[in-house]
Design brief:
Layout lengths: L1 H7 L4 H18 L3 H28 L12 H33 L3 H26 L3 H25 L3 H14 L5 H8 L1
Helix pairs in contact: 2-3, 2-4, 2-7, 3-4, 3-7, 4-6, 5-6
Pfam family, one: MatE
InterPro entries: MATE_fam
Family: Belongs to the multi antimicrobial extrusion (MATE) (TC 2.A.66.1) family.
């Protein structure tokens, strides 16, 4: 598992994209630019997917060599080679999911994202992993498949939430939140400066 965490953290850019797209979407919605918010989410999601695919491809192509960086134990090397396709799938999905989560947070859906995370990971993914790993005797691979399945379901739910979104309506809701919480719009500021 240490090799997995070390390798997966080489792809930590997904956390940066999460924060960047969250800010970008919230700013664009607050500025009443729903088309730009939607375009930004497409770019961030595709960029995350492409980065994940490149890293996954590199892992699969180097699976006979990169375990040497972490261990000299032949059994561990063989297990890493066997689990590399699962690691590659994990890298891809762990690049896309944070981008989608960032979009949802930027749109102001923090509570919904929290429920999706809890439901998919803690109520579905982890129990599935425990069943596969211990009850069905699949070991580490079963635990990993269960947790990855939870993340895949979470990604699917976020895709569905984002796909059904009316971005013009979200921009209007953002404008309403700005008014409610005392934010000034640009036209008022420009009038007061003149």
């Amino acid at each position: 598992m240490l090799i997995y965490f070390s390798t997966n953290h080489l792809a930590l850019q997904h956390q940066h994209i999460n924060a960047a797209i969250s800010v970008r979407v919230s700013n664009e919605l607050g500025a009443a630019h729903p088309r730009t918010a939607r375009f930004s989410l497409v770019v961030a999601t595709l960029a995350s997917l492409l980065i994940g695919l490149v890293i996954a491809l590199a892992l699969v192509l180097a699976r006979n060599h990169y375990p040497d960086l972490f261990t000299n134990d032949a059994r561990v090397k063989e297990l890493v080679k066997e689990l590399t396709p699962l690691l590659a799938a994990c890298v891809i999905i762990n690049n896309v999911q944070p981008a989608l989560s960032g979009v949802a947070i930027g749109a102001g859906w923090q509570a919904a994202v929290a429920y999706v995370n809890i439901g998919c990971d803690y109520i579905f993914g982890i129990p599935l992993g425990l069943i596969l790993g211990y009850k069905l005797q699949m070991g580490v691979q079963g635990i990993w498949i269960g947790m990855l399945t939870g993340t895949v379901v979470q990604t699917g739910v976020l895709f569905w939430m984002i796909g059904k979104t009316n971005w013009s309506k979200e921009a209007s809701a953002a404008e309403e939140r700005i008014r409610k919480w005392g934010g000034d719009d640009d036209s008022k500021n420009k009038k007061s400066e003149q």
